[in-house]
Write a structure and sequence with these properties.
The protein is mainly α. The chain has helices at residues 5-16, 33-43, 74-80, 84-99, 117-154, 157-183, 202-230, 233-263, 265-270, and strands spanning 47-51, 60-62, 66-72.
Length: 275
């Protein structure tokens, strides 16, 4: 079944909680959008209505069953590609909650089952990998910004605009990584930078930028593989989208190098003076 990005985010968050609660929703959904997304997940039996405890967010009130909240079902883990062995116990706990009436009295509290250490260490590895990518992006922003301003100073207005736009796109990539790391309850490391390689002329700048893009492209592919292993589909989708951008960046840089080879650096640069 095809799940939207929003549905994947909602399910992924629920599957990571010890009680598999769908609430709180970690993605902002305007107006009736939340009801639509959750209604569709209910129809697909990926989440289920269960009696709400006092601290739970109420999904709806039923005349016979009272206040109801939502929990992720085992099928949700399957849909996300999460290893069933590490979540089975939790899934059963959630399913059983639905079957039994709400317990009364103070002794009714059940202790959340500890999460598997194997899954946790992979999750930590994924957060660290996202921080490695963040360092690549922050380095790229600085390198592109300096190259862009050097081109402006030389009067290569076309290159200046193009490279400036590239720096802004890398900033958007960094923003997505920071947002994802925070969602996964990690700490975004914005204090790490790789070596910044500033070229003294345009051909060297293009070569240095291409080298950095190849490094980023490989790191994104490694991270996509790891997100797949962890079963984190929303992170994998996000990384795949950015990897496609990096692919296009490599393409553009190689095109510039081809043009320089074919028409010579003087003619190439004289074409860059107009916006
Ligand atoms: Fe990037
Ligand atoms: Fe890039």
């Amino acid at each position: 079944m095809a799940l939207s990005d929003t549905q994947l985010v909602v399910l992924s968050a629920a599957c990571q909680r010890p009680d598999r609660s769908v609430y709180p929703l970690t993605t902002k959904l305007p107006g009736g959008a939340a009801a639509k997304v959750l209604g569709s997940l209910l129809k697909q039996n990926l989440i289920k209505e269960v009696q709400a405890k006092r601290e739970d967010t109420v999904w709806r009130e039923d005349k016979k069953r009272g206040r109801l909240t939502l929990r992720a079902m085992p099928a949700a883990s399957k849909a996300l590609g999460i290893d069933e062995a590490s979540t089975e116990g939790e899934a059963e706990t959630a399913a059983n909650t639905e079957a039994k009436p709400a317990r009364s009295g103070k002794s009714g509290k059940s202790k959340p089952k500890p999460r598997g250490t194997r899954a946790d260490s992979k999750q930590a590895k994924l957060i660290e990998m996202l921080n490695v990518l963040l360092a690549d992006e922050l380095t790229a922003i600085s390198q592109y910004m300096v190259h862009s301003e050097m081109c402006a100073n030389w009067g290569y207005e076309h290159l200046h605009k193009k490279i400036e736009a590239r720096a802004i796109q890398e900033m958007k990539h960094a923003e997505k990584l920071i947002s994802r790391i925070i969602f996964l309850e990690g700490t975004p490391r914005v204090d790490r930078l790789n070596k910044i390689n500033i070229g003294p002329d345009v051909p060297t700048q293009l070569a240095n930028d291409l080298e950095a893009e190849h490094v980023a492209w490989k790191a994104y592919n490694d991270a996509i593989h790891l997100a797949g292993e962890v079963g984190d589909a929303p992170t994998r989708n996000m990384l795949e989208g950015t990897a496609r951008d990096e692919d296009a960046h490599i393409d553009w840089l190689e095109e510039q190098q081809d043009q320089i080879k074919q028409i010579g650096v003087e003619l190439y640069l004289s074409n860059q003076t107009k916006e």
